Amino acid sequence: MAEVMIITRENNRMFINFAIAYTSRDEITHAIKDIIQGVKDADILPEDINEDLISDCLYTYKSPNPDLLIRTSGESRLSDFLMWQISHTCIYFTEVLWPEFSRWNFFSAIFYYQRCYPNLQKNINNLKPIMHNTRVSMFLDKLYNKRDMAIEKIYQSAIKS
Predict the structure, then answer these.
(1) What is the pLDDT of residues 63-88, one digit of tens each?
(2) Is the dihedral of CA 131, 150, 29, 142 positive or negative?
(3) Residue 121 confidence class, pLDDT cut points 50, 70, 90
(4) What is the DSSP string of 13-52?
(5) I need a surface site. Which of 15, 18, 35, 130 has the fewest CB within 10 A?
(6) Whether 147 contacts 2, CB under 8 Å
(7) Are 109 and 94 in contact (CB under 8 A)?
């Protein structure tokens, strides 16, 4: 996964998120810890903390929030997946198990999304673009650089093995 992240880090046209050993609770906890550390290090001030900053400290900071979440296997729960990011997402539940999920099942999900789309647009139009002050931008650059270095370290140790 580290190699894929390194190879695709400059991609910006299409995003896919893989949830491997992932929980939203863990992701949000790490974001809060990063923010607390930023305040302790005087990189940011407590008044800089808002929803936008938390969003920018999540694992998915490089990708937009999903437009469509497909939940397979007949489960009608979200399993702690992208809980912060899906507040304006169309969620499609299907009885089909993932390995059997076909293009026809995918088309059904797309058609369902198209029916949800007008209602989603009402919510999306109310969203404001994220604007950060220089202090917050510098903190985020430092945080992202730290994460990139950690991924690079994992990648380097994997190719040496």
Answers:
(1) 888 889 999 999 898 888 899 999 88
(2) negative
(3) low
(4) S------SS--HHHHHHHHHHHHHHHHHTTSS-GGG-SHH
(5) 18
(6) no
(7) yes
Spatial separation of the C-alpha atoms in residues 131 and 142, rounded to whole Å: 17
| Integer Cα distance of 139 and 48 in angstroms | 11
Q: How many CB atoms lie under 10 A from the CB of residue 44?
A: 24
Total residues found in the chain within this entry: 161
3-state secondary structure 50-100: CHHHHHHCCCCCCCCCCCEEEECCCCCCCCCCCCCCCCCCEEEECCCCHHH
Structure token digits, residue 5: 């992240």
- Model confidence at 19, in pLDDT bands (50, 70, 90)? low
Helical packing angle, 24-40 and 134-160, nearest 10°: 120
Give the pLDDT confidence score for residue 85 in this predicted structure.
94
Distance of CA 149 to the CA centre of its chain: 19
Q: Which residues of 143-157 are buried (b: 16+ CB within 10 A; e: fewer)?
A: beeebeeeeeeebee
End-to-end CA distance of the chain: 15
